[in-house]
């Protein structure tokens, strides 16, 4: 994590920033990746304020930040950052100010009333069914170590067949291995959901666990790296990049693309949005509704078959 001691902020600001990060970690149950991203965003904001004000940032400066200051900071990011990154950074700053308000340090409405950049709603990029099948058939053949091949196959099958985020899959422990036909998953906001587990998923996990050279304990991570520690998501993402090159798959073929594919293929097969929403762990149906734009062929066929004037 970034060293806040190097920031141009006073000791009291540094202390509250550290407390906020600990609150994110222990109360909000944020992942280390999320906390690091938040820290980077806040660091950038404090660095800008320091240059903008011409000195170290004090609590009184944070309290008196105006809308024009926030807009100047957002404008300073325009050429170097994507709009989505800047929108997230503004969300981070608002989160920090909400924390300050909860701790009764002070309240600043100007921060909360500042709007971020308009974002284009990107449609989910899903693989074709045959591309997903080809990926599953190939990923278990890329590595010289057989148990690593079985691990990568089990992880990809789990993501695609259960619609998990990679963070959700990698947070599973040995104790979480499903004995029955369902799996309990902890998603964003520490919310739990139950997803059905197909026999192919259970078989792939069982083969990987059997081949893994490291002993498992109940609380041990289910997916391990070559040194027996929790698997780094970057390692699996590298394997997918190799897979993408080998099969000439689109550049959008990431772990998240297989989650999108899970939802899109379910919708194509007649699954309803409410059920898919629950399986994906979306808090809002509007998020799941994006998949209706992806599956235009099925929707047009349904319209032609059902509408009396079609």
Describe this structure as you would to a colleague.
- The chain is mainly alpha-helical.
- It has 16 helices and 2 strands.
- Strands 1-2 form a two-stranded antiparallel sheet.
- Strand 1 (182-186) and strand 2 form a beta hairpin.
- Helix 7 (129-139) runs antiparallel to helix 8 (146-162) and helix 7 (129-139) packs across helix 11.
- The protein is globular and about 60 Å long.
- The relative contact order is 0.09.
Helix content: 55-70%
Number of strands: 2
Strand content: under 5%
Q: Uncertain runs with pLDDT below 50, 5 residues or more?
A: 1-5
Helix tally equals: 16
The string of secondary-structure elements, in order, is HHHHHHHHHEEHHHHHHH
- Which structural class do the helices and strands define? mainly alpha
Shape: globular
């Amino acid at each position: 994590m970034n060293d806040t001691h190097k920031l141009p902020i006073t000791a009291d600001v540094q202390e509250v920033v550290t407390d906020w990060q600990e609150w994110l970690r222990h109360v909000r149950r944020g992942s280390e990746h999320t906390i690091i991203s938040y820290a980077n965003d806040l660091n950038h904001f404090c660095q800008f304020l320091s240059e903008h004000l011409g000195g170290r940032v004090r609590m009184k400066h944070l309290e008196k930040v105006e809308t024009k200051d926030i807009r100047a900071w957002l404008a300073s990011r325009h050429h170097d950052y994507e709009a989505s990154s800047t929108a997230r950074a503004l969300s981070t700053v608002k989160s920090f100010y909400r924390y300050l308000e909860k701790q009764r340090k002070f309240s600043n409405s100007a921060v909360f009333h500042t709007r971020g950049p308009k974002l284009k709603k990107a449609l989910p990029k899903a693989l074709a069914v045959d591309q997903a099948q080809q990926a599953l058939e190939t990923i278990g053949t890329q590595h010289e170590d057989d148990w690593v091949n079985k691990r990568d196959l089990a992880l990809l099958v789990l993501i695609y067949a259960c619609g998990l985020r990679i963070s959700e899959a990698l947070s599973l422990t040995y104790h979480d291995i499903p004995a029955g036909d369902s799996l309990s998953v902890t998603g964003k906001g520490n919310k739990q959901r139950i997803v059905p587990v197909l026999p192919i998923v259970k078989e792939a996990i069982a083969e990987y666990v059997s081949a893994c050279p490291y002993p498992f304990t109940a609380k041990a991570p289910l997916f391990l790296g070559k040194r027996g520690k929790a698997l780094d998501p970057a390692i699996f993402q590298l394997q997918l990049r190799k897979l993408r090159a080998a099969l000439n798959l689109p550049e959008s073929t990431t772990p998240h693309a297989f989650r999108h594919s899970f939802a899109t293929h379910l919708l194509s097969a007649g699954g309803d949005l409410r059920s898919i929403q629950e399986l994906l762990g979306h808090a809002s149906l509007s998020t799941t509704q994006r998949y209706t734009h992806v599956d235009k062929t099925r929707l047009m066929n349904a319209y032609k078959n059902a509408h009396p004037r079609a």
